[in-house]
Amino acid sequence: MTYPELEHLKLERRGPVGWLINNRPDRLNAMNNAMRDEFAVAWQVLDADPEVRVIVHTGEGRAFQTGVDVAEIAGDGVGMERYRQSMEEFDVHFTAWHQGVAKPVITAVNGLCAGGAFHWVADADIVLAASDAQFFDPHVSVGQVVAIEAIGLLRKMPFEAVMRMALTGRHERMSAQRAYELGMVGEVVDPPERLREAAQELGEKIARNSPAAMAATKRALWGALETGLTEACRAGAKELVSMWGHPDQEEGPRAFAEKREPKWAPPDGAGCA
Q: Which of 82, 128, 175, 256 lies 20 to 30 angstroms, CA to CA, from 113?
């Protein structure tokens, strides 16, 4: 599958792992309007590639991402209008979660992670961070409201930890180790130079599993966050039953018994894994 050439993002595939790389290193990968629109394309392309089983999202240079490009917002006003419109319409099309990506998503945080970058920390299935990564939310320091990203983080972190980061703004940074202790990230990679290697290794482990079963698992577990316990369990049971009769359900036990790697069925069309 040929990937499109994008201005501010890079798309690559390494074996079964697709890579989405923020590529505005001269601006600390801050998201301008063009990058925001490119994200929607990037997620769709990687989710539709039948050779990709897992997606890793990371950044080029010394920052993962530093949120919205404040310089653009402070300029002719067009950037702020575009951003306001997307929020009013709740069109957060630059995140994997809002795009409904079926494949497992790993966010690999390198360097600075600030403000709007927390969208991808909150919405990822798994988060890795380099040991020198730093986290902070500068919204209130530039007169903006902390909302959607931090609300997403409340699923992972204690309320007070999220609130402290929101209220200290750019005046306090959280270390990767502290982010791990609070549950924001699941693994700290040291030395930092091993981050991409570690993400690739993890992606390859995940890619060995049934694509259909993983997609159903994502629907069940993410869906549980939107509902009460009983409703979530009922919905999860439907996802479980949806695999009955699927060839992967027979292939998995057979491969285990025969002590070989399973041969999973291919994804059922674009957007499924």
A: 82
Domain-by-domain residue ranges, the chain? 9-207, 211-257
Beta bridge partners of 188: 129
Strands across the sheet containing 174-175: 63-65, 112-114, 134-136, 174-175
CATH code of the domain made up of 9-207:
3.90.226.10
pTM flag (> 0.85) = yes
